[in-house]
Amino acid sequence: MAGFDKVVTTYEDAMSGLQDGMTVLAGGFGLCGIPENLIAEIKRLQTKNLTIVSNNCGVDGFGLGILLEDKQVSKMVSSYVGENALFEKQLLNGELDVELTPQGTLAEKMRAGGAGIPAFYTATGVGTPVAEGKDTRFFNGREYLLEESITGDFAIVKGWKADRYGNVIYRHTAQNFNPLAATAGKITVVEVEELVEVGELDPAHIHTPGIYVDRVIVGTFEKRIENRTTSE
Amino acid sequence: MALSRDQMAIRVARELQDGYYVNLGIGIPTLVANFIPDGMDVMLQSENGLLGMGTFPSEANVDADMINAGKQTVTAVSGSSIFSSAESFAMIRGGHVDLTVLGAFEVDVSGNIASWMIPNKLIKGMGGAMDLVAGADNIIVTMTHASKGGDSKLLEVCSLPLTGKGCIKKVLTDLAWLEIENGAFVLKERAPGVSIEEIQAKTQGRLIVPDHVPEMVF
């Protein structure tokens, strides 16, 4: 099945081709559903001057937060970055640029980018600092902002199960931004907990069809919990 | 007496209706989930991609892959659905959520809301708040009426960078229930024992006080 076999066995191969100055789209919400081993590989590679597009930037010492330690990130595109003291320090020092983007707009930028739509109008952010410098237009009497889509040189994605063809399903709310990032990377790398046989996943239940996926790797995950809350 | 956080949640819960899909923000809005009337079916939307959020899990059922928008571990109710962030905000932006409850720093008489940024002090980001206020028709803002220093949060014009423009019509503070109509706050209800004079003194934006302003009953 060589033609559609997307599986790679080393993280070195998984992130092969990543270069300084590239844009990387990352799935995950907080620490939930983040491609933790692919992030660790980017740290090992010491690639610099990266633009990272991700809803959040991990926490100090885990997730995307580890890429700040050696100043590998020059720009973050995120909706919320409040969990990370090092991020705030580098931002205030001018070592890091951040483009704060409303969460739904960020999701749609990736979705549209992956779907070949270069820009879209949304009411989100009209009259706020997000609207500065952007075109606006009225439709049916309401004002909308023109937001440009996002694509990346790489997309790094965390799935639950995949087959060799790169068909992926996500587990619970670890889905979040992952299927959107997966569509919008020139090279999309998915790390999963489990590789299953081709044909084992129900075709109607696949979240990310293999056409979007270039590489699949099986990893083991810490799955750190950011805010453990129980009823007891 | 100013309302407690629980009393604020109880007052907001009176706006719920059977069959509502509701998005609750972080803080006091989250408490509303504790006061859904018996026999009423309400489904909670969490913008990270969960419709039908349940209670917090038992220690044995904690699952790192099951969280809410506040990054807390949660459960999903029977009949829930889970989806991507794009799908989640399609629901929100498309106006499919029946009620959105969220906090704010300031609201003004034009229905503008500021809730995400204090220049040179707080740069955490807006998360989903801008999408929520732009997409919802029915929004309740919950906040204290004035800051600890006594500065009004109900203003003629918001002083902080906006989250949304002209989108707020209902505000519940610890002192009063107000609705925004024709460029003014209209005082609809007051907290038990809180005088109209106190509310007037703590409201900087134009305030209309009808002849009769009932006290809330708890």
How would you describe the overall organization of this protein?
The complex is a heterodimer of chains A (232) and B (218). Chain A has helices at residues 11-14, 36-45, 85-92, 103-114, 178-183; strands at residues 23-26, 50-53, 73-78, 97-100, 119-122, 136-139, 142-148, 152-158, 161-163, 168-169, 185-192, 194-196, 215-218. Chain A has 232 residues and is an alpha/beta fold. Chain A has a seven-stranded parallel β-sheet. In chain A, strands 5-7-6 form a three-stranded antiparallel β-sheet. The longest helix of chain A has 12 residues, at 103-114. The relative contact order of chain A is 0.20. The mean pLDDT of chain A is 96. Chain B has one domain: Glutaconate Coenzyme A-transferase, CATH 3.40.1080. Chain B is 16% helix and 25% strand. In chain B, the strands form two sheets. Chain B has a ten-stranded mixed β-sheet, with helices on both faces. In chain B, strands 7-6-9 form a three-stranded mixed β-sheet, with no helix packed on it. The longest helix of chain B is centred in the N-terminal third of the chain and has 9 residues, at 5-13. The mean pLDDT of chain B is 96. Chains A and B meet through α4 and α5 of A and α3 and α4 of B. Chain A: One of its GO terms (molecular function) is transferase activity. Chain A: This is CoA transferase subunit A.
Throw out a few tags for this protein.
heterodimer, A: 232 residues, alpha/beta, seven-stranded parallel sheet, B: 218 residues, Glutaconate Coenzyme A-transferase, three-stranded mixed sheet, 13 strands
Summary?
Chain A is an alpha/beta fold and 232 residues long.
SSE order and pairing:
The complex is a heterodimer of chains A (232) and B (218).
Chain A: H1 11-14, E1 23-26, H2 36-45, E2 50-53, E3 73-78, H3 85-92, E4 97-100, H4 103-114, E5 119-122, E6 136-139, E7 142-148, E8 152-158, E9 161-163, E10 168-169, H5 178-183, E11 185-192, E12 194-196, E13 215-218
Parallel strand pairs in A: 1-2, 1-8, 2-3, 3-4, 8-11, 9-12, 11-13
Antiparallel strand pairs in A: 5-7, 6-7, 9-10
Chain B: H1 5-13, E1 20-24, H2 28-31, E2 42-46, E3 50-53, E4 76-82, H3 85-93, E5 99-103, E6 106-108, E7 113-114, H4 129-135, E8 139-142, E9 154-155, E10 170-172, E11 176-181, E12 184-190, H5 196-201, E13 207-208
Parallel strand pairs in B: 1-2, 1-5, 5-8, 6-9, 8-10, 12-13
Antiparallel strand pairs in B: 2-3, 3-4, 6-7, 10-11, 11-12
